[in-house]
Specification:
This protein is α+β, with helices and mostly antiparallel strands. The chain folds into two domains: about 80 residues, Ubiquitin-like (UB roll); about 70 residues, DNA polymerase, domain 1 (Orthogonal Bundle). Helix content is about 30%, strand content about 15%. It contains five helices and five strands, in the order ββαβββαααα. Helix 2 crosses helix 5. It is globular.
Length: about 160
């Protein structure tokens, strides 16, 4: 099977890679690109552990073919912290102990960031609805929701 050349932008950096036509974006991120923050939880789009953004839209990278990245802006968990400084959502996840085993954390953070970019002042219900596609088996969600609401308040200041 011949490889396909893809030119895209990942976390603000122009990026090129070769992939097989059936490689998922998750395969390429975790493999040749070495961006292992996105986790493979289910391979069926049910858990959200592999969440990324494509042109600002939340996407499960396990369901996206890597060739579909051509010409698009991809955002991953690795692009959240800038210059070694945690993004407010990341800091609030730490402060609220909104993580345990860590499998869901990157997807939760990417999804939460996508929400706050779309709606900087969400209600608790909106946060819970937005994160419904991201499964966590450890925290029970309350700490995650509190962290997102606290980050939203801080980011609006």
């Amino acid at each position: 099977m011949s490889k396909i050349h893809v030119t895209t932008t990942i976390n603000g950096e122009p990026t090129e890679f070769l992939c097989a036509p059936d490689n998922t974006m998750l395969d390429v991120l975790r493999g040749p690109l070495g961006l292992t923050g996105s986790k493979e939880g289910c391979s069926s789009g049910d858990c959200g552990a592999c969440s990324i953004t494509v042109d600002g839209r939340l996407v499960c990278s396990c369901l996206m073919l890597a060739v579909e990245a051509e010409g698009h802006e991809i955002g991953t968990i690795e692009g959240m912290a800038k210059g070694g400084k945690l993004q407010p959502l990341q800091q609030k996840f730490l402060e609220h102990a909104a993580l345990q085993c860590g499998i869901c954390t990157p997807g939760m953070l990417v999804a939460s960031d996508a929400l706050l970019r779309k709606n900087p002042n969400p209600t608790e219900e909106e946060v819970r609805f937005w994160l419904a596609g991201n499964l966590c088996r450890c925290t029970g969600y309350d700490k995650i929701v509190r962290a997102v609401l606290d980050a939203a308040a801080e980011m609006r200041r």
